[in-house]
Amino acid sequence: MEQELEVIIHQFKKEAIKSKASSVFVFVLSHGQNMEFALSGPAISNTRPNTVNFYDSVVNCFSETTFPEFIGRPKMLFYVCCSLFEPTDYHSNEGSLEPTEYHLYTDILVTHSCAPGGSSVRNSLAGTYFVRTLIEVWMNNAFMTDIETMMNMVKAVNEINK
Question: What is the pLDDT of residues 115-127, one digit of tens each?
Fold first, then answer.
């Protein structure tokens, strides 16, 4: 399943280049935990679903290193999944805190629908509250407002309606 995700992202990037897209929006909506999200398909084991890390499997695909054709164009990545923590899920790189790869991230906005350790709220009929708020704020303000201000507006609406 992870290889399928890689193929889908590769095809998506190829199409963005071919169509000369001015920006890229990627939404990941799934069950999540510790910055990992569930893929469809058979589980890895009875206790662990088929999951991948959001940063390793998605965000890194849009860095300057892995997507040089899109340098200077906005890439907006939305993680709309729970970010619950499990005490056993903190891992280091074999005792080292050094990353195994370095990526340069420019022109990328990474947004999470909830704070680390939190749950993403979703209504089974209306969808996620975060995405509904995001769409409403952007539809009403995108013609005259920058992205940072609109994302702060989304945050403010979500805080009011807690």
Answer: 777 778 777 787 7
Decide: pTM greater than 0.85: no
β-strands 75-80, 51-53: how paired? unpaired
Q: How many angstroms separate the CA atoms of 81 and 117, rounded?
A: 11
Are residue 40 and residue 70 in the same domain, yes or no?
A: yes
φ/ψ of residue 133, rounded to 5:
-65, -45
Task: State the residue range of the domain holding 28.
Answer: 2-120
Helices 147-160 and 129-141 pack at an angle, to 10 degrees, of 130
Positions of E strands within the chain = 24-29, 32-33, 36-38, 51-53, 75-80, 108-112, 122-123, 127-128
Distance CA 35, CA 90 (A): 11
3-class DSSP state of 90:
coil
Q: What pLDDT is attached to residue 145?
A: 95
Closest among 107, 48, 37, 46 to 72, alpha carbons compared: 107
Q: Based on the structure, what is the number of domains in the chain?
A: 2
